Amino acid sequence: MQNLSTSVCTPQHFIVKTLGLSDYQATWQAMKDFTDSRNEQTRDEIWLLQHPPVFTQGIAGKPEHLLHDHGIAVVKTDRGGQITYHGPGQIIAYLLLDIRRLKLGVRELVRLMESAVIGLLQDYRINAAGRVEAPGVYVGNAKIASLGLKIRKNFCYHGIALNVDMDLTPFSYINPCGYQGLQVTQTKNLGIPDGADILSTKLADQLQEKLLTKRLTEQHDH
């Protein structure tokens, strides 16, 4: 994978890498390699990227949720959750984190990831919400962001995908995240004028703000 740009923030912040359009399998392998080689001193990272068209099916994913592949590759991956679609015009933030160091449980991490997208949309006066029974972010009844994680030895990878300006048709080829007839939407359809470059930066900023607030608050208290 080509690292197009890297921005390094203060020691309390994550390293943010912008990777452009990246093959799913290669990115997945890179996440596993990073996680296998890291230790307690390794800086946490956020990878911002997009994927060519691909369906990904989580560990517990049921094959019947793929209604028709229409020639799009299906990858059985190691994140949680059911089947979803990735394609150009959808921004993905992969989170390579030491959750023990961040003092985060998995459920809390999921809620904070959702709150980052909710906060981003609030900046554009769009009201969004998460759902306890169906992780992700929704505007009304339509899903705008999906998420999935893999936890290995207190390290996590995979992350969250936000629909920006993409062909939503392939979502009709599946039961998105295992829900028949689930509607999906994207920022373009909500009237948000900014594109993937601006929104990916804002998403990374929101993720850092939400994920680091707890740890920085605790350090200040001590």
Short description, anyone?
This protein is an alpha+beta fold. The protein has helices at residues 24-37, 106-122, 196-221; strands at residues 5-8, 15-21, 45-50, 54-57, 74-76, 83-86, 90-98, 129-130, 137-139, 142-152, 155-163, 183-184. Residues 1-11 have low confidence and may be disordered.
Task: Explain the overall architecture.
- There is one protein chain.
- The protein has 222 residues and is α+β, with helices and mostly antiparallel strands.
- The chain is globular and about 45 Å long.
- The termini are far apart.
- The strands form two sheets. Strands 1, 2, 3, 7, 8, 9, 10, 11 and 12 form a nine-stranded mixed sheet that branches. A three-stranded mixed sheet has the order 5-4-6, with no helix packed on it.
- It has helices at residues 24-37, 106-122, 196-221, and strands at 5-8, 15-21, 45-50, 54-57, 74-76, 83-86, 90-98, 129-130, 137-139, 142-152, 155-163, 183-184.
- Helix 2 crosses helix 3.
Strand tally, please?
12
How do the SSEs run, as a string of H and E?
Answer: EEHEEEEEHEEEEEH
Which outline best applies? globular
Q: Are there runs of 5+ residues with pLDDT below 50, and where?
A: 1-11
Major β-sheet annotation? 9 strands, mixed
Amino-to-carboxy terminus distance: 41 Å
Residue-averaged pLDDT: 92
Give the amount of beta strand, in percent: 25-35%
Report Rg.
17 Å
User: How many helical elements?
Assistant: 3
Helicity, as a percent range: 25-40%
- Helix and strand composition category: alpha+beta
